Amino acid sequence: MNLKIMQSCEEKLLLDAPFPSFALNKNGQITIWNPICEQYLGYKKEDFKNINTLKDQLLSTLSENMWQRILDAQEFIRINNIQLLHKNETLSKADIIIIPCLINGEHSIAFYCFPEEQFAFLGDSEQELNDLKNGILSSFMVVNLDHEGFIISCNPLFLKTSKWTPKRVLKKNFWQLFPEDEESQQMADTIWNTISKGKIWQGDVQKTKKTGETYWVHLTAIPTYSQKEQKYSYILIEQDITNEKELQQKLEKIAYVDAETGLMNVHRLENVVKKMIAEQQNFYFVYLSIDKFYTLKELHNVEVESNFILEFTKRLKIYFQDSVLARVNESDFIVITPLGEWFIQGFLTYLKQHPIYIGHRAMPITISGGITRSPQDQSNFTQLMNASLATIADVRKAGGDNILSLSESAHKKLSRKSIIEKRLLLALDQHNLKVLYQPQVDLKTGKIYAVEAFVRWEDEEIGVVSPDELIPVAEESGLINNIGSFMIEEACKQAAQWQQQGIELKVGINLSVREFRDKNMAKFILDTLMKTGCPANLVQLEITEKFALEAEAETSIIQQMRKLEEEGITFVLDDFGTGYASFRYMQLLPIQILKIDQTYIQSLTKSDKTQRLINGIVHFGKSMNLTVLAEGVETEEQKQLLEQYDCDAIQGYLISKPVTADKIPQLLSS
Ligand code: C2E
Ligand code: CA
Ligand code: CA
Question: How far is the CA of 503 from the centre of ligand 1 (A)?
Fold first, then answer.
C-alpha cells in the first residue's frame, strides 16, 4: 500500500507542479510531461521518442558529462542557469532540479525546471490563475511568510497536518516550523539563506507539528519580490511524504545487508565510512579479496560455495572482533578496524591455522589484501576503495597471498592526484586559471600572425601545477571539459578584443580528444564565437596525433571537426612526429597546419639525420598542401635552418616565452 502512495505522490507532484516538470524512466523514455511543459516549452510528449531527442533539443546545451551525472544521480542535483531550447527555437534560462525517484515501480528521474522568467508563462486570465491557485491549495500545504520569516497565512491542509490552530500559528516564525535539534535548524538556515537571496529552494525536510511530532515534506520554497515594497516575501509549498520516507527507510535496511552472510553491503559501508570520516576517526580500511575464487566456484557446486563463504565470514568475525565488516562483492570483503597493520596481516596465519573444510579436505585458500589508512592515506570513501584496489593489484602481480599497505610512492601519486582534483574544482569555480599566449612568426614576412594559448595554474596551496601534470589528471576526472570551455572562452574573448584594437591575430587553443566526445562541442565553440564576437577564421584548434588517431575511429568527432572547418576554423596537427603519423587520418581529418614537435627542433643542429628528417617533413607537409610550423625554436641557428628548408612559420623561446595577453602588443611592434 505504501508503495502506491509513494508512486502517486511523485507522479502527482510532477503533473501538478506549477512549473515545467517531467520524468524519464531508466530506458530514457519520457513518462511524464506536465501540461506546463507543453504550454511553456512548446513540445508535446510525443516529440520525445527517446532520451536523444531530449539531449539534442530541449537540453542541447548540457554537456555529455552533465548528462552522465544526471543519469547516475543517486540523490537530488541542482543545475543553475541551463539554457532551454524551446520548440520554436528560442532559448530561455532556467534552474533545474533533478530527483531520482520511483514512478510506477520504475526507477525514474524527475526534472523540475524553474525558468528565470518566473511564471510569466502562466496564463494570466483570472480564471486560469484561480484554477491554478485552487489546484495548488487543494493538493499542497501552503504557507506564506513575510520578509522576516513570520507566517502571515497558511491553507487548511497545512493546519490539518501540522495540528496548529490558525490563531497560534500566525505569530510563529519560519525556524519554529522545524525540529529544535541542531541539524534541522541548520537546514532551516540553509533554506532561508537560499530564498532570501531570491532563489528557489527545493528538497525533502523534516518538520515539526504543534505536538512536537515530526513529519517529512517535499518542500518548494519560493521567494516573490514585491516591487512596491521593495522586499521579498516567501511561499512554502509542501507535500507530506512521511509515508514514503518510512518506506524508504525500510527499503534501505533491506538494501543495506548482504543476504548471504548478513554482513553489511557496500552501500551501508559507504555510509558508515563517511560518518567515521566526518567524525574524524582514525581507522584502517582493509580490503580482502579471495584469490582465484572463480576456480573454486567452478570446481564445486553452489552449496559448497555458499558454505565456504559462510565459513570464511565466521573466521573474519572471530578474528576481527569489534570491527566493521562488509561484503562488497562475491569474493571481496572489507574490514574497518583500529587494530594495527601487523595484526591485520596476522589474519593470513590465522586462516592457515583454521582451514576451511569441504568434506574432509581443507580448501587451499589465499587472500590478497590492501590496507589504506584514513585519514593519513586517503580521506574519502572512493579514494579508500581505489587505493586499496590499486594495492591489491600490486599484491596479485607479485603472486597474491599477502596483505600490504599502500606503498609510499603509490600513496604519494594518488594523494597528489586527488589534491589536484579537489583544488582544480575550486580553481575553476573561482576562475583562478590563467592564460598565457606565445607568438608564432611567419618566416616570409617576419611578422607575428598568431599566438597559442596555454593554461597556467598557480594554486595557493599546492603551488604551480604544470600543464603536463594538470592535463592528464583533468582528462581522467572529466574536468578537462571545464578547462577546455574556459580556455575557448578566454582565447576567443581575447582575439575579439585584439581585433577591436586593430590587431588581427589568430589564437591557437589546445584541445584533447575527450572534449570532442561531447557531442555539443562544435556547437559550444560556435556559440562562444557568437557570444564573444570572435570571427571563426581567427581560431586555430590544436589537436595531437593521438587525438587524430582516436578521432579517426569516431565519426561524430570527424563530423564535428568538419562542421567547424566549414565555419572557417583551422585545425593544427600538434606534436607531429611523436606518435602515430598516418596518411589516412591526415586525409580524413580537416587539418591545415602541421606542427613539427619541439623534440626534433631541439636536436636539429646536433645531427645530420634530424636535419634530413625535418627537411623531409617540411616537404611532405607542403606536398599535402599544409602549412608547416616548427615549435620550440630556441636559437637563431635553428631558425636559419628552418628557413632554408622553406618552413612556413616558427614558434619558440627565440621569439618569446608564453606571456600574458597585455604583453603581446609590445611584441608585435618590437
Ligand atoms: P604543446 O601544445 O606542445 O605546447 C608546447 C609546450 O612547450 C608549452 O608547454 C610551451 O610553453 C613550451 N614551449 C614553447 N616554446 C618552447 C621552447 O622554445 N622551448 C621549450 N623547451 N619549450 C617551449 P606547456 O605550456 O607547459 O604545455 C605543455 C603541454 O600541455 C602542451 O604541449 C599541451 O599539450 C598541453 N596544454 C597546455 N595548455 C593546454 C590547454 O589549455 N588545454 C589542453 N588540452 N592542453 C594544454
Ligand atoms: Ca600545442
Ligand atoms: Ca606541441
Answer: 24
